[in-house]
Amino acid sequence: MKKFFLLLLLASLAFIDDKVSAQDSRAVSFDKSWRFKKDTLTGAESPTYNDSGWRSVNLPHDWSIEDLPNQKEGEVQGPFTKESIGKAATGFTEGGIGWYRKAFTLRNTNGSKQTYILFDGVYMNADVWLNGHCLGNHPYGYTSFYYDLTGFLNPAGKANVIAVCVKNIGKTSRWYSGSGIYRHVWLFTVNPLHTKIWGNYVTTPDVSKDKADVLIQTSVENASAVKRTISVKIDLSDPSGKVVGSQLQTLTAPADSSTNLTQKLTIARPKLWNLEKPVLYKAKVTLLAKNKVIDQTITPFGIRSLKFDGQKGLLLNGEPIKLKGGCIHHDLGPLGAASIDRAEERRIELLKKAGYNAIRLSHNPPAPALLNACDRLGMLVLDEAFDMWELPKNPQDYHLYFKDWSGRDLESIINRDRNHPSVMMWSIGNEIYEAPDSSGYRNTKRLADEVDNLDPTRPVTEAIVFLPPYTKKPWTDYEPHIANLDIDGYNYFLDKSAFFQRDSATLHRFETERDKHPEKLYMSTEYFPSGALENWDEVEKYPWFLGGFCWTAMDYIGEAGIGKSILVPESQKLPKGLMAMGLFYKNNWPVFNADCGDLDLIGNRKAASWYKNVVWRNSKIEMLVHRPIPDGQKEVVAPWGFPDELKCWTWPGQEGKMMQVNVYTRSKMVKLELNGKIIAEQTVPEGSITATFQVAYQPGTLIAKSFDNGKQTGSSTLTTAGKPAAIRLVADRSTIKADQNDLSYVSVEVIDDKGNVVPSVDDLDVSFKLTGNASIAGVGNGNPSDMSSFQQNHKMVFEGKALAVIQPEGIKGVATLKAAAKGLKDGSIEIVMK
User: Fold this and answer.
1) What is the pLDDT of residue 196?
2) Going along 290-422, which residue ranges are E strands?
3) Residue 249: HSE in the Cβ half-sphere, 13 Å Cα cutoff
4) CA–CA separation, 345 vs 614, rounded Å?
5) Which is higher by pLDDT, 2 or 520?
6) Dist CA 436 CA 477 (whole Å)
7) What does residue 308 show for φ and ψ, rounded to 5 degrees?
8) Residue 140, CA atoms < 13 Å, CB-side half-sphere
9) Mean pLDDT rounded to a whole number for the chain
10) Do the Cβ atoms of 358 and 547 come closer than 8 Å?
11) Distances in Å between the alpha carbon of 534 and those of 494, 541, 616, 690?
12) I want to staple 487 with a disulfide (CB 3.0 to 4.6 A). Which of 399, 461, 641, 643 is the partner?
């Protein structure tokens, strides 16, 4: 036993991990060298517990994405099991109980220091111990939380053991949550007198091109028994590092208490944060006692004016912005819920490239790394707190803790996130069941008031659903609830769906509510992919209609198959209303992801994304081809789905058969050319952007051209690929940091001898071999029914593509990835890690 603890002590002497994207400049990464076991053990919190049989993991870590043991044909595949308590809702994954332990030693410190540990997110119900002392329990799986370790630490040079028990038990979620310490962990060692964690609050109340006022509120904590008088120095620096403003004020900090100080600085000719040039400044706050630095924090912020005008809508730096938004869940596809910084950044890059300018975080606060990426890349954010309040959506979900914890969790969300210029508004809930009841009235006022107290610079909203038979209450019962919101967010109020019977009064709720409240603003917090055009028409029609968020911007694990098209006999009569949803949830194994995203699980654009390209006027024309439907069958598209279309003119075996070609354009006329000959032309129906053609398939080149008044406005081309010849590997970045929080996403493409991707290949298994100081963090494809492992060294391609995610091990050098498949030329690529 002594030998075991000596090894732990030696291993922990270098506990200061590589720097990652901290939310506080004083934070030291605490991600490395944890021990983990998924079990129901007790006593693991004891510092003398022998965990030598546990496996080593680095954080962030999500055990729900790991392969399950005892694979049974048809019952267990990869990390998925039919025995999952969440079933399709959680993507057939398992939760359970997991234990984490880490030994660490503090060096060169003394009793005058304060030490804190901060968890960015643990799913869920985390019990935390230090040296056998219980620090507390944190139920909510999505909020950050921290503990003061000071009173329970061993003296410098002696090992400490921190233990975390994570309990994801029962039906806790409506989607894939992941399990474990799936976000970063940080350690802080500070003087007793210091700026509190999340203690700086930066706002820009007056902004113009000539000057900007910057307010910095600093919350100082004095953990000592003596009143102290200190100086608080502010230095503002621009993106080049040049100091553009400084100020010094005196503050008296009472003993065993905290106090606030607000300072105002003015910056001349500021560089404004916007969606095209998201410029970030830094506020350095230094606490000095007798001219000696005792604490220092650096807070990034953006200088921007954000106004919500009842007549003009959303104004960013005085310019109107319409929200081209999408909802996203927090999982990262093949990585599960493990929030690796580069994975969060890549997702925002992909969404910006697809035309989005806003995201809604559904239905919970995100990892800080995602907001950091939105700040850097220029993406507006609707930051959402809760999916339920006092009434449950699942037996073991957050409703069990809402009364006791919602205030504390809301404070955590806002204090942590309010300095992000990307965050434009706060949402306090999604489809709250008690919205039309007295408890809903009480809680919406309480939560809205708490938000306004913590951050009065942003409006409060909520996603309201009014879809009978979800509710049998009249609309008048919702009005006292909605009166507490600054902006009304409505789910599916403009969507005409065959599955939901909508009356005219509901469809025009925006207009009727606006007539009653002429200064209020409105938006679609969710809409179906098929409703994109009618939603955007309203956006262009009314300045007070801000835009909306489609469900969803990207595929996610869980809610399996809600967007998947299915085939049924032509003679089959379809049920109406919500009963029709049984079509999509019945026998949906092995579907594990929602399949409702504009982008698939690995980031490739799907049909709905190309359609929105035209809806949002980002593209003049897009052409897609419907996958062939067997004779005697018909396609049924789920409410959250889109017809099964591809940007593809490679259909081996369909020669001579009729193919449905949809051309999306806002122009009046469309002509089709096949192999150089005009084969059809069509006037786009009034009020539509779709021209539909039936074309006899023959290989070659298909071109759609759009015209207005005889003048060509755009074209879209599809070309038939040849036979599969080789594997091509394409990295999103071939040079990355030698850091476990950086990743290289390597696209795997099946190509013909001319280098064209062959999208008709779906059943080819590609094996990977990686050499160098790196590992394969995950493999994936866009197939919602491929339940094979995310963590093995092979994966099937889907529509000619797959993905391998390469993660450095912290050592500089070169990693080489090779990919092989039967009958094809191998692919190879080098990743440089600096």
Assistant:
1) 97
2) 292-301, 306-309, 313-316, 319-320, 323-328, 358-361, 380-384
3) 15
4) 26
5) 520
6) 5
7) -115, 105
8) 29
9) 93
10) yes
11) 7, 11, 11, 13
12) 461
Task: Give me the count of residues in the chain.
Answer: 834
pLDDT at site 110 = 56
Question: Sign of torsion, CA 816 556 459 200?
Answer: negative
Backbone angles phi, psi at 767, to 5 degrees: -105, 150
Distance CA 350, CA 336 (A): 18
Q: How many CB atoms lie within 10 A of CB 675?
A: 12
Collapsing DSSP states into helix, strand and coil, what is residue 820?
Answer: strand
Which residue, 51, 29, 67, is CA-closest to 341? 29
Reported as a pLDDT band with limits 50, 70 and 90, residue 2 is very low
What band does 494 get if pLDDT is binned at 50, 70 and 90? Answer: confident
**How many angstroms separate the Cα of 603 from the Cα of each of 189, 309, 486, 571?**
39, 35, 34, 37
Query: Could you tell me which residues are beta bridge partners of residue 100?
Result: 36, 164
CB 761 within 8 A of CB 793: no
Q: CA–CA separation, 794 vs 63, rounded Å?
A: 20
Task: For residues 237 and 216, give the distance between their C-alpha atoms in angstroms, rounded to a whole number.
Answer: 14
Contact 418, 391 (CB under 8 A): no
d(CA 803, CA 782): 9
Mean pLDDT of 603-624: 98
| Type of residue at 518 | P
Closest CA to 185 of 4, 23, 393: 23
Are 99 and 153 in contact by the 8 Å Cβ rule? The answer is no
Q: Which residues contact 794 (CB under 8 A, 6 or more apart)?
A: 765, 766, 767, 768, 779
Adjacent-strand bridge partners of 228: 253
Q: Which residues contact 674 (CB under 8 A, 6 or more apart)?
A: 695, 698, 700, 701, 702, 703
CA distance to 269, 391, 600, 785, per residue, from 403 (Å):
47, 11, 37, 39
pLDDT at 508: 75
Q: Residue 229 phi/psi, 5° resolution?
A: -110, 125
- Dist CA 489 CA 674 (whole Å): 45
β-strand partners of 492: none
Say how many C-beta atoms besides its own lie within 10 A of residue 832's C-beta: 16
Q: Residue 57 pairs with which residues in a beta bridge? A: 34
pLDDT for position 18 = 38
Q: Is the pLDDT of residue 585 over 90?
A: no
Among candidate residues 114, 126, 116, the one with its CA nearest the CA of residue 183 = 126
d(CA 44, CA 137) in angstroms, rounded, equals 16
Amino acid at 474: P
Q: Taking the alpha carbons of 566, 571, 577, 582 in that order, is the dihedral positive or negative? A: negative
DSSP code string of 132-186: TEEEEEE--SSS-EEEE-GGGPPPTTS-EEEEEEEEE-SS--SS----BS-S-EE
Here the tokens at position 393 are: 């959506």
Q: Angle at the Cα of 401 (from 395 to 403), degrees rounded to 5?
A: 120
> Are residues 588 and 560 in contact, defined by beta-carbon separation less than 8 angstroms?
yes
What is the phi/psi pair of residue 527, to 5°? Answer: -150, 155
Which pLDDT belongs to residue 633? 95
More confident residue, 10 or 813: 813
Which residue bears the tokens 């939760």? 95
| DSSP label at residue 405 | H
